Amino acid sequence: MSSRPAINPWFVASAVIIPTFMEVLDTTVANVALRYIAGGLSASEVDSEWVITSYLAANATILPISGWLSAHLGRRNYFMLSIAVFTLASALCGMATSLIQIILFRALQGLAGGGLQPSSQGVLLDSFPPEKQGAAQTLFGVAALLAPIVGPTLGGYLTVNYNWRWIFYINIPVGILSVVAAYFLVDDPDYLKKERAELRRQPLHFDYIGVGLLALVMSCWEVMLSKGQEWDWLGDPFGRIQTLMILFVLGLAALIYREMRFVNPVVNFRPLSERNFAASCILIFCCFGVLYGASTSLPGLLQNLFGYDAYVSGLVMSPSGFFSVMGMLIVGFLLGRGTDARWLIAGGLLVIAVGNYWMALMNIYISPFQVIWPRVVLIIGLSMIFAPLNVAAYLYMPRHLRGAAVGLFALLRNEGGSVGTSMAQTIMQRRLQFHVSRIGEFIDPLNPKVHVFADQGQAFFYQETGDPAGSQLMTWQALEDLRQQQASAMAYFDDFWLFAVLAVVLVFLVLLMKRSVAEKGTHIGAE
Q1: pTM, 2 dp
Q2: E-assigned strands of 114-204?
Q3: Structural Rg of the chain based on CA atoms
């Protein structure tokens, strides 16, 4: 059994949760500011998307190897180093004078930030006894789930009212405070100190080939997700997506083959052999795909069809953050009372399905208040899942594989968000084309409603302009605008409908999991 720190574990938790919240926040806070960043650095908005892609690719590369780095550097040292470099990179991003500079600094920020989530979760697992793991993972869930919700609102507020550079500058005081808190409150447990001492006595066999393959795989993956729709996926006439996909598949196969045969792999896939952990990885991947997909589709709907700016659309979404915290507190209490995590996960998936289906039934004539509640239901469902999934994932995990498991789990959680965002954008664009075509089938001279619209429209515009030919053109343009508007709305609603179906299908995966109750006297991760 690992030793417990003399310091109250809740103080330790506060020291690791704040920088984790800061890092997760940065995955979404810059999304709403891309247009302003592009304008401030004299770049195109399309090119500014590399600000997001470089961060995600670097972050995804470092997550799986965070367990190896923690073991060799010491988890406390690695955690503090990650915070310090992340804070420095944030300052450099705010001071960037060109697009190339901010892309490089964002990549550095992503490399540093990738170590924060696994390290903080590892600290929580070692700081709390088994019967309190539900409460500990609830606290971690508040940071990991609330940050993507708050990010667009905070980013929109700072960008609109101050300057886009402040979305990076706000990390500086938080980072400095976090380094000081970690220095005084966080310590490595005895088993990690012994493991590090044993590693230091052995010759260092660094897996350079594994790291190179990992960087290739994750870079191809992130660029493919980011640019897939823009480059027309497999229809790309220049072969860029096809090349990236081939490199990704071959690189992933080589990486798995290499790491499964290497004595001291930098990416350890062995935790996936544990049934609960493997099922939890699939669930967290899909759930965060739904979260990020819905969190990008809803602002797009509000801004493109309702005319809201980034800040106002963020305000419409922000009430769900309060309910997510309340939901997690209730779930943490239930886990502490011995509730099986599987039933909470299944219930949360069904609530997610209800929230998405509710949003799929919306129309473009609703008020902002009618958008808030479906979003609240969706986030409550996600808050029911996060902490139980973390308990179920690590309950049967051997302690010596815990570091690798935390890194893989965090990687799949983040990559689920990337896939969800890309999938939502692709489906929206493809379904937009479909609905525009279907609606156009009814706009023909034989449709009497078209004649009525044309007559009324021409009379209105003629009264406004006095130009018969111009009023006719404006009438047909108004009809085309209505077609595009309705088709766009239906395309967004198709996204929500698909996410609802996915949530229902995932319920059947819960049936494959083992009983997941963290009771007093059990040893999470015991060998």
Answers
A1: 0.79
A2: none
A3: 25
Based on the domain organization, do 37 and 148 belong to the same domain? yes
The tens digit of pLDDT for each residue in 58-106 reads 888 888 888 778 888 888 899 999 999 999 999 999 999 888 899 999 9
Q: Which residue range forms the structural domain that includes residue 254? A: 207-262
Residue 494 is classified by DSSP as H
Say how many C-beta atoms besides its own lie within 10 A of residue 194's C-beta.
11
24 & 83 share domain: yes
Q: 20: closest CA among 112, 94, 99?
A: 112
User: CA-CA distance, 250 to 257, in Å (whole number)?
Assistant: 11
**φ and ψ at residue 283, rounded to 5 degrees:** -65, -45
* Alpha-helical segments (H) within 186-207: 190-201
The whole-number pLDDT of residue 104 equals 92
Kindly indicate the confidence band of residue 524, based on its pLDDT and cuts at 50, 70 and 90. Answer: very low
Task: Record the tokens describing residue 397, joined without a space.
Answer: 């995990």
Return the DSSP state at 8.
-
Same-domain check for residues 96 and 145: yes
Instruction: Tell me the C-alpha distance between 519 and 9, whole Å.
Output: 18
Residues 166 and 212 in one domain: no
Closest alpha carbon to 381 in 357, 405, 352: 352
Amino acid residing at 252: L
Considering the domain architecture, whether residues 327 and 471 belong to the same structural domain is answered as yes
Residue 321 C-beta-side C-alpha neighbours within 13 Å:
17
Find the CATH number of the domain harbouring 25: 1.20.1250.20
Same domain (yes/no): 294, 391: yes
Spatial CA neighbour of 393 closest among 274, 507, 231:
274
Task: Say what percent of the chain tops pLDDT 70.
Answer: 96
Separation of alpha carbons 408 and 235, rounded Å: 32
The total number of structural domains in the chain stands at 3
Contacts of 77 (CB under 8 A, 6+ apart): none
Per-residue pLDDT tens over the stretch 100-120 = 899 999 999 988 988 888 888
The pair of structure tokens assigned to 450 is 């078209």
